[in-house]
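Dig into what follows:

_____
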Amino acid sequence: MKNIFKLPSVLRFVCVTLFAAVVLFNCSEEKFKESTDETLNITEFLRANTEDYSLFLEILDITDYASFMNTYGTYTLFLPTNEAVEAYMADLGVSSLASIPLKDLQELAKLHILEQKIETTTFTDGKIATPSMQGQFLITGAVNSADGSSITVNKSAKISTSNIEVGNGIIHEIDKVLLVATKTVAETIESDPSLSLFTEALKATGWFEELDRPITYVDSVPSYLSVIAQTNAVFEEAGFNNLDDLKARYSHLDDPMNPEDSLNLFVAYRISPGLNYLADLAVTPALLTKAPLEVISIKLAADSLLINEETFNGILEKGVQIDRDPSDETATNGVVHQVKANYFIKKRLPAPVYFDLADQPEFRQLSSVFRVPGMSASLSNAELADVTWEGSPSVTYVCNSLGSSSRPGWHGDFLDILRLRDGYINNIEFTTPVIIKGQYKVWVSWRQNSRAPNAVRTYFNDTQLARTFNMQEYGDSGTPERVLESQGYKRHISPFTSRYNCRLVGVINVETTGRHKIMFQSLAYAGGNSWLDVVEFRPVDMDQLYPKFEAGGDGLIYE
């Protein structure tokens, strides 16, 4: 999800850090091909260009994937050249593709294919939002050389010819075969000599075994884990040369296997549930860890991602920078990052959470739709992991065209619920981002519609909040803002339009740090659409009006 704790624009992180190449690669020798001479599908295109691509075509033929890559659809293919496939075979020590196990070829082929059309101009962060057909995500980045800048895929393959239009998608030619990750998180860390002390700490605390487990599923949720590892050099700089030094400093119970031992908590604080790439961390300001009820904060600062950088009582506590180059290391059961300095568990104070209801992971993966003006997509209850409701129809993600009267919502998008009422869609419940323990005011914003319900009740963790909100009600553009706030309303976007409104629905006590549930129940008939924008959880002692949200953008606007 995309949730912001007083963060600068994610676009700045995108443009400045990971994809300078998008600006620079015009200076390189990378070739572009806007379209083919004929509307050949992918397989037909390969057969017409066997001098360059016959070996990958052979992979498709052996795996029986050639037929479906020749059918109607919208695909992206990262296409290795013959030279790239020959180098791959040489590394394996085989003289023919037929010598490679069929299952390995199947996994390899699927890793190179995405089921959406994705042009290089839409590469906006390290992780491509849409996973490969194999299931693992591809990582794009920039590399500079004497020849200029190039886009890389999975840190090794360079895109040599991009955006080749074919009848059923797009092709990017690459100079190396992409390799399927075959090591677990534990094995990935253990295989890196610079992480040997971190590996020892994992084994001493029992976390190595946990990080070595294959993926399991509970209610369709995979057991991925993400780790922020520390190199030997980072440990040495902090005064730890071996495991005994770590035990002496952190193992207060002298029992690292005990979950309450400080060394166990030290390690657990570096492990988080879920598959969190750098692109995900950039929009995840508070990250749950395996240390019970402990979170780390993530902050964007210019071109860096910082852990636990915060200001308390006017004093800046500097954060620790994530080391971007070795990070985003895909494993079979998660992802591994590295950090540039040692860090500690910190006491957390309540912090604001700005929950864009339209920003669900499944919508985010639809890169041709998500935050693309004029696009929309509908998903059913079964297709959304963090949204449930009573009723059978789907809900719709909408990003309005630039000239639309709906455009002024935050990010220009909203969640569209057709007929929020009993018998259609009702009792729609969302899993929130991480909220730190404390007391908060809850604000709900929406786009006005005269056919939406005029009374909607809000529940937080099944507790009814004090006020309902009326989705037929226009925003007030005339009352002074502080007076309006005292009446339980505010103008949450800037520039403001009365087509949007925002209502204080109650005050909550969040008793445990973590993700929670918020539910909306219609108490009235609705003959039309309900358009929800943002739910704000603001600490009670925080300014409730500022920052505001940039209308049609992703920035925050301060007084």
